[in-house]
Amino acid sequence: MSEVLNSERTVRNLAELKEFWKEVLPALKDRCILLMSGDVGAGKTTSVQLIAEILGMRDVQSPSFAIHLRYENQQGQALDHLDLYRLKDDDDLESSGFWDLFSQQKSLIIIEWANRLDYEYLPMNWQKIEVQFQKLSDTERKLKIQTL
């Protein structure tokens, strides 16, 4: 399983991107932070929507203005989705309740624009996985995923 968490993949369409996430999700632990970075339009929000769909969650949107949105499926599994694109400073992050999220016993926390965050401050007892997105063409994306 760990090989899927330390790999590179080029996907050519949404179906291939969804298959990628279907392979990744079983390798995630109960307390996991997915740290997503890449240019605008590279596939971060689309990936979150596909992950949520795989997990049985609906109506997932980008939390650009709210910074944080939470979703749960019928089994009670939680997904906390953060978008740090509009983050101005540490006070914005603090007021979003960001640090409180790590008191949960079980959650998948997905952070878009994670490169605006200092990974050193993330809790040690959570699995941390970085996903870098590169837009190669209108439909083709390169994804690099690695465990930190």
Structural features, described:
This protein is α/β, with parallel strands linked by helices and 148 residues long. It has 3 helices and 7 strands; from the N terminus they run E-H-E-H-E-E-H-E-E-E. The chain has a single domain, classed as 3-Layer(aba) Sandwich (Rossmann fold). Strands 1-7-6-2-5-4-3 form a 7-stranded mixed β-sheet, with helices on one face. It is globular, with a radius of gyration of 14 Å. The protein starts with 6 loop residues before the first strand and ends with a strand.
Number of strands: 7
CATH class category name: Alpha Beta
The ordered H/E elements are: EHEHEEHEEE
- Which residues form runs of ≥5 with pLDDT under 50? none
Largest sheet: 7 strands, mixed
CA distance, first residue to last residue: 15 Å
Give the integer mean of the pLDDT values: 90
- Named at the architecture level, the CATH assignment is 3-Layer(aba) Sandwich
Oligomer: single chain
Strand order of the largest sheet: 1-7-6-2-5-4-3
CATH superfamily: P-loop containing nucleotide triphosphate hydrolases
Query: What's the CATH topology label?
Result: Rossmann fold
Summing up helix and strand content along with how strands pair, one would put the structural category as: alpha/beta
Bin the strand percentage: 25-35%
Number of helices: 3
> Rg, please?
14 Å
Level of helix content?
10-25%
Instruction: Give the tally of structural domains.
Output: 1
Instruction: Tell me the overall shape.
Output: globular
